[in-house]
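In the laboratory, one determines a bound structure by crystallizing the protein with its ligand and collecting diffraction data. In a computational setting the workflow is compressed into a single prediction: the sequence and the ligand go in, and a structural description comes out. We illustrate the idea with magnesium ion.
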Amino acid sequence: MSEAGAPPTRCMHLDMDTFFVSVERLMDPSLNGRPVIVGGTPFQRGVVAGCSREARRYGVHSAMPLRQAYECCPQAVFLHPNFTHYAEYSDRVAEMLEDSVPVLEKASIDEFYLDISGCGRVLGEEEGWGHRLKRSITGELQLPLTYGIARNKLVAKVATNVGKGHGDLRVPDGREADFLAPHRVRILPGVGEVMERDLLGMGMPRIGSIARLPMQLFTNMFGKHGRALHEHSRGIDYAPVLPYRRQKSLGAEHTYLEDVLDPRAMTATLKQLAQRVGHDLRGKGFLTRSVTVKLRYADFVTATKTLHCDYTNADHTLYRMAERIFQSLYTRRVRVRLLGISTSDLSEDYGQLFLFEEEEEKFDGLYTGLDDIRRRFGKGAITYGSVLEQKQEESRRRCA
Ligand SMILES: [Mg+2]
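The predicted complex, in structure-token form:
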């Protein structure tokens, strides 16, 4: 096993095949064999989040505007993305992988790196182990996947992409450059449309042609990206596999200086706590689907209750949930000493892709702005009017 932060000496990259479509097909087997496009309805603003191989045959690809995808393949089944389900299955894959290797990195919702350096004695022969791992995941979860094994992350990822639809690949130690050489430059991570065009313009359609030339040529052209490009073309990559630590919960509490009886004060506190928790969730890139409110009365009797919702990290949703829980929790006419909100069942937020709900889209811009203000001017820099009133009230009481 390599030390934390050290590059692996043997690495597996694993990618779920047409992940969103595969999950949709689990839930609705009538989608099998049909062109499926996940992203939304064809006449919606938005892009393709995922599509089946049948749809790809018509030229549809990820990130293509939905309207355009419809023109390519009008007979496709168009589906709204179901983030909750994708995240659940992603977590289940991660759990199975975590059980089998010491260091796992979750690179995205459907992509994983496994550091298997020096694991030969434990795992046994690499090829057989890879097959068994794949069989156990596809058997248990009924989700297809492709993997690649190589010395480092870069070559393992390329091996997966090359192997898609053909079979899983292993690149023997020392054969990295030979393996990469015949492939088109675009397959290298970090080579986008612009760089590809420049390289084609220089007469370099294949990775091998980059590897043969001196690095200087590429640093002159692309700066530090040129250095990375040249190293990558020779199969060199020092990136470590970053261990994936699942955060279980995230929350915030407030203890009153003086126990309170006024429900408005408590509501204001809940709003403030929801803001803090929302801010922290977004800052750490998490979504939650379980909200718990903790209420401690002046006599230290403590009550908690949890409600579940669709994955969210929006202040207003957290607050709405907390308020509902609070209403059912606050049953005694006794002063309250502490209120807390905590969130659990966390999942990584995979970004814009899932913000298709109009409401979410509207609020997304708002929270990005609010988070920015709070980062620059402090967490208390911006808040609801009712929270502010409550704070002023508290400080008046403190001073009195
Ligand atoms: Mg995938």
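The two ends are 62 Å apart (CA to CA). Keep in mind that any predicted model is a hypothesis to be tested, not a measurement.
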